[in-house]
Design brief:
The complex is a heterodimer of chains A (454) and B (314).
Chain A: H1 8-12, H2 23-34, H3 36-45, H4 57-83, H5 91-105, H6 117-136, H7 141-161, E1 164-167, E2 171-174, E3 181-182, E4 189-193, E5 196-200, H8 208-231, H9 233-243, H10 245-250, H11 255-281, E6 283-284, H12 291-304, H13 309-332, H14 337-346, H15 350-356, H16 358-372, H17 381-389, E7 393-395, E8 401-403, H18 418-427, H19 445-449
Antiparallel strand pairs in A: 1-2, 3-6, 4-5, 7-8
Chain B: H1 11-39, H2 46-64, H3 74-104, H4 114-134, E1 139-140, E2 149-151, E3 156-158, H5 159-181, H6 183-193, H7 195-200, H8 205-231, E4 233-234, H9 238-253, H10 258-278, H11 282-300
Antiparallel strand pairs in B: 1-4, 2-3
Helix pairs in contact in B: 1-5, 1-8, 1-9, 1-10, 2-3, 2-4, 2-8, 2-9, 3-8, 5-6, 5-8, 6-8, 9-10, 9-11, 10-11
The chains are: A mainly alpha (454), B mainly alpha (314).
Chain lengths: 454, 314
C-alpha cells in the first residue's frame, strides 16, 4: 500500500517564478535606505523635529548599520535554516570567528592591510563551518542543533581563556582573554578612478555615513546573491532536502555535499558580518558572541518567515532596531516630570528592567510565532502552502507512513484512525484539491488518480 | 564551579567530587531522557525548570522561612531539607506541566524543527523570568548542612555530598521501579516504543506525556535544592549551563535510555571533576571540555553508550 498523493497546487507552483517576486518591495527598501543618511542629515539641520531627542543622526545611522549587519547574518542563517532546514544554534560562533579574525590583525602594532580580510575572514569562518559540518551533517535534525549549540558554547570559552596564541602566517597574536580586544578602525581603502577617488570607508566617527553605505551595499549584494541561490540548482536541492531527505537522496541529490554547502555559506556570511561588527564597534570581546546572539538571529528569521527573503530582511530590521531602542528607551523618551517622579517611586529599576526584558520578548516572539503563525510575518509562497497542507499523515496497516500533502487550507485535517483514513482517501479529489471542492470517489480511484506517483 | 584548590586533593577525593556532581546531573538528565524517549523532543526548557527550583530554594531559605544557618540535629536537618524538596518538586513539576501544555502540545504533530524552536522560546521565557525574579547577578544561597565531613581515611565525604548521593540512588531506584513495575510505567514504555500502537491498545497518550513531564520536573526540583545548597548560588543562567551538561549526560548515556542517563550523569560529573583538578586552569576549561565531549559523542556515537542504533523506516 505504498502510495503518494501529490497535490497539484504544489506541482503548479514554479520555483523559478519566485525570482521575480518581491522586486517592488525590494525597490522600495532600496530607495528608502539609500537616502537614509540624507534624511537624517536634514532631520539634524531642522532642530525643531525630534523623535528621540537623545539620538542624533549619526547614532540613528549607527543603529541602522548594525541592523544591516544583522540582516546579513539573518540572510546567511536563512540559507541554513530556511532553505536547507538545518537548525544551527551555534551561528554566533562563526560571527565570533569573523570578528576575532578582524580583531587580531587590527590590534596594537600589527600592520596588516585589513581590506583583504573582508575576503579572508569569511573563508576562515566557512572552513570552520565545513570542519564542524562534515562529520555532523549526517545526524538527525535536532542532534545537529545540539552539536552546533555545543560548538557555539566552546568558541567564546576558548576566546575568553586564551590571552595570546600563535597562528600560522601571523605569528604570535593577542587574543585578549576576558577583556577582549580594542580594535582600530580600518584605514580607508581608496580607488583612483579618473578624476574621482572612491573610498571604502571606516567606522570612525566622521565616517559613519561611509560605513553605512558599505554595509548597505553589502546587504544589497547579499540579497541578490541569496535570491539567485534560491532558484539555482543547489537552492532547489536545499528545499528538496528540507522537505524530504530520503526522497531528495533518491532523486540523486548528494545529501552531505548539498547540506555542507548550505552550512559553509551560512558560516561565511556570519564571519563576514563578524568583520563588519568588529569594525563598527571597535571592540571584540568574548561576551558578545554567546548563545543569545544565535537565538536573536533565529528569532529574526522565525519572525519574518523561514525561507522568505523579504520576511527575513524585515524581521532582522525590525528586531535589531527594537533591540537597540530597548537599550536606550528609558533615557530617550522624554516624559513630563510628574510622570517620571511617579515612575521612579513605583518602579525604581524600570530602566534596567526594560533593558532586561529584551530576551523575554524574544522568547515570547519565538513561542507565539511558532505556535500561531509558523510561516512568519511575510511567508514565502511555497512554505505557506506546505504549512497549511501539513499534518495530513497517517499509518497504513503495513506500518508505512502515508503522507498526503494537500494544498487546500480546509483539507488540513488530522487522521486518527484507519477508518478515517479510508474515508479520507475516498474524499481526495485528484485535480481540484486546491480549489477546495470535493467530489467523493469510491475507494481506490483516489489512489489511482492522485498525482500518479505510484 | 566545583571546588578549587586541587593540589591537596587525592584521586579518590576527586572521584568523590565527580560522583556527587554526577549524581545531580543524572537527576536532571533523567528528565531529558524521559521526555525524549516518549515524544522525541529535546526539552530545551528542562534546564530552566531546574533553575526555577534553585531560585525557589533561595527564596524559601532567605526570604520565607529564614533558614540561614546550618542545622546540627541530623533528624531536623533531613526533615527540613526533605520538606523544602517536596515544595520544589511540586513547583517544578507544575512548571514542566505548564510548559508542555503551552509550548509543546499545540505542536505535537508539527514537522521538523518547529517543536525545538518552541522549546527554545519557552526556555528563554523561563530564563528571563528568572532574571526578573533574582536579578542579573548570582545570589548567595545558605547551606543548611554543617560544613563537616565524614572521614574515611583516604577519602572524606562532605555531609551534603552523602545526602546527594543517597538521594540520587533512592530517587533513581524509585523511578526505575515505577517504570518497570507499575501500570503507568508500562504505558510509558509502550508509548516510547510505538505511539500509534500504544494508542490503539487504549493507552491514553496525553496522560502518559503529562506524567512524563511531571516526573521529569519533580526530579529536577529535587536536584535543584541540593544543587543550590551545595554550590551556594542561585543564578538565572544556571538552567542553561547545568541543563546543557545534563543533556550531554543524557546523550552520552544514550538518550531515551533511563540507565544511560544515570551512567552519563556520572561520566560528565567525573570529567568535570578531573578536568578541574588536574588540568592547568581547569576551572576555566571544564565547561568547554564537557561541550567538546557532547560534540564528539554526537559525531562518533550519536546513539550513546547504552543507546540502540535508531533504524529509520521510510
Amino acid at each position: 500500500m505504498q502510495m503518494q498523493v501529490k497535490s497539484n497546487s504544489l506541482r503548479r507552483f514554479d520555483l523559478r517564478r519566485g525570482i521575480f517576486r518581491g522586486w517592488g518591495l525590494g525597490a522600495i527598501f532600496f530607495l528608502l535606505f539609500l537616502f537614509m543618511p540624507q534624511f537624517f542629515a536634514s532631520l539634524l539641520a531642522d532642530s525643531t523635529v525630534s523623535i528621540f531627542p537623545t539620538l542624533d543622526g549619526d547614532q540613528w545611522l549607527g543603529i541602522l548599520t548594525s541592523a544591516g549587519i544583522f540582516i546579513l547574518m539573518a540572510l546567511g542563517l536563512n540559507v541554513v535554516v530556511g532553505f536547507a532546514g538545518l537548525l544551527d544554534l551555534g551561528y554566533a560562533a562563526f560571527f565570533a570567528i569573523g570578528a576575532y579574525a578582524y580583531g587580531v590583525v587590527n590590534f596594537g602594532d600589527t600592520h596588516i592591510p585589513v581590506w583583504p580580510l573582508l575576503l579572508a575572514a569569511p573563508v576562515v569562518a566557512g572552513l570552520f563551518g565545513v570542519m564542524l559540518g562534515a562529520p555532523t551533517l549526517r545526524l538527525r535534525g535536532d542532534y545537529l542543533a545540539i552539536v552546533t549549540l555545543g560548538f557555539g558554547e566552546i568558541v567564546p570559552i576558548v576566546f575568553r581563556n586564551i590571552d595570546r596564541t600563535t597562528l600560522p602566517f601571523l605569528g604570535s597574536v593577542e587574543i585578549g582573554g576576558v577583556n577582549g580586544l580594542g580594535v582600530r578602525s580600518p584605514t580607508p581603502l581608496s580607488f583612483p578612478f579618473g578624476n574621482y577617488t572612491f573610498e571604502l570607508a571606516t567606522a570612525a566617527h566622521d565616517d559613519v555615513t561611509h560605513f553605512y553605505y558599505l554595509v548597505f551595499g553589502l546587504v544589497v549584494l547579499a540579497t541578490i546573491g541569496v535570491v539567485l541561490l534560491r532558484t539555482s540548482k543547489i537552492g532547489r536541492a536545499w528545499i528538496a532536502i528540507r522537505e524530504d531527505e530520503t526522497a531528495a537522496a533518491c532523486s540523486g541529490i548528494n545529501l552531505v555535499a548539498t547540506k555542507l554547502t548550505a552550512f559553509a555559506i551560512g558560516a561565511s556570511v556570519s564571519g563576514f558580518a563578524g568583520v563588519l561588527y568588529g569594525a563598527q564597534n571597535h571592540i571584540v570581546s568574548p561576551e558578545e558572541f554567546g548563545f543569545t546572539v544565535s537565538i536573536t538571529v533565529l528569532v529574526m528569521i522565525v519572525l519574518g518567515g523561514m525561507g522568505s527573503i523579504p520576511g527575513v530582511i524585515t524581521g532582522a530590521l525590525l528586531l535589531s532596531i527594537v533591540n537597540r531602542l530597548l537599550a536606550i528607551v528609558p533615557t530617550a523618551i522624554q516624559l513630563p516630570s510628574s510622570a517620571l517622579h511617579f515612575l521612579e517611586a513605583k518602579a525604581p529599576n524600570l530602566a534596567e528592567q526594560i533593558n532586561d526584558s529584551e530576551f523575554l520578548i524574544f522568547g515570547g516572539i519565538l513561542l507565539l510565532m511558532i505556535i500561531l503563525r509558523p510561516q512568519g510575518l511575510i511567508p514565502s509562497a511555497l512554505r505557506k502552502r506546505e504549512l497549511k497542507g501539513e499534518a495530513v499523515a497517517a499509518v497504513t496497516e503495513t506500518g508505512e507512513e502515508l503522507v498526503v500533502p494537500v494544498g487546500a487550507p480546509d483539507d488540513a485535517t488530522t487522521i486518527e484512525s484507519f477508518q478515517e483514513l479510508e474515508a479520507f482517501e475516498s474524499e481526495i479529489e485528484p485535480e481540484d484539491s486546491a480549489s477546495g471542492t470535493r467530489a467523493p470517489l469510491p475507494p481506490g480511484q483516489g489512489r489511482a488518480g492522485g498525482g500518479g506517483a505510484q | 564551579m566545583i571546588l578549587a584548590d586541587s593540589s591537596t586533593q587525592s584521586v579518590l577525593q576527586v572521584i568523590e567530587q565527580g560522583l556527587t556532581t554526577g549524581a545531580i546531573y543524572a537527576l536532571i538528565a533523567t528528565g531529558y531522557t524521559l521526555v525524549y524517549g516518549i515524544i522525541q523532543l529535546i526539552n530545551f526548557a528542562h534546564g530552566d525548570v531546574f533553575m526555577w527550583g534553585t531560585v525557589l530554594t533561595y527564596f524559601m531559605l532567605t526570604k520565607w522561612f529564614k533558614l540561614t544557618t546550618p542545622i546540627s540535629n541530623p533528624f531536623v536537618l533531613i526533615g527540613t531539607v526533605l520538606g523544602l524538596m517536596a515544595i520544589c518538586m511540586i513547583t517544578c513539576a507544575l512548571i514542566a506541566f505548564t510548559v508542555e501544555r503551552i509550548a509543546y502540545r499545540p505542536l505535537r504533530r508539527a514537522a521538523s524543527v518547529a517543536p525545538l524552536i518552541s522549546a527554545i522560546g519557552a526556555s528563554f521565557i523561563l530564563e528571563n523570568l528568572g532574571l526578573f525574579a533574582i536579578g542579573p547577578s548570582s545570589l548567595n544561597v545558605p547551606n543548611l548542612f554543617p560544613n563537616g565531613s565524614l572521614n574515611l581515611g583516604v577519602v572524606s565525604f562532605k555531609y551534603i555530598d552523602i545526602f546527594v548521593i543517597v538521594l540520587a540512588v533512592i530517587l533513581m531506584y524509585g523511578l526505575s521501579t515505577f517504570i518497570s513495575r507499575t501500570k503507568m510505567g508500562r504505558a510509558m514504555r509502550s508509548v516510547a516504543q510505538d505511539t500509534e500502537a500504544a494508542s490503539l491498545m487504549g493507552v491514553n497518550i496525553n496522560q502518559v506525556i503529562i506524567i512524563t513531564f511531571l516526573l521529569g520536573g519533580a526530579l529536577a526540583g529535587a536536584a535543584s535544592v541540593v544543587y543550590a545548597m551545595r554550590l551556594q548560588v542561585a543564578f538565572f543562567l544556571t538552567g542553561f549551563e547545568a541543563g546543557l551538561k545534563a543533556f550531554t549526560a543524557a546523550v552520552l548515556g544514550g538518550i531515551g535510555n533511563l540507565y544511560g542517563a544515570m551512567l552519563g550523569g556520572l561520566f560528565i560529573g567525573m570529567i568535570e571533576a578531573f578536568v578541574t583538578a588536574y588540568v592547568h586552569d581547569g576551572l576555566k576549561w571544564a565547561d568547554a571540555t564537557v561541550f567538546a565531549v557532547l560534540v564528539l559523542v554526537l559525531v562518533f556515537r550519536p546513539s550513546g553508550i547504552l543507546g540502540k542504533q535508531a533504524i529509520v523506516k521510510v
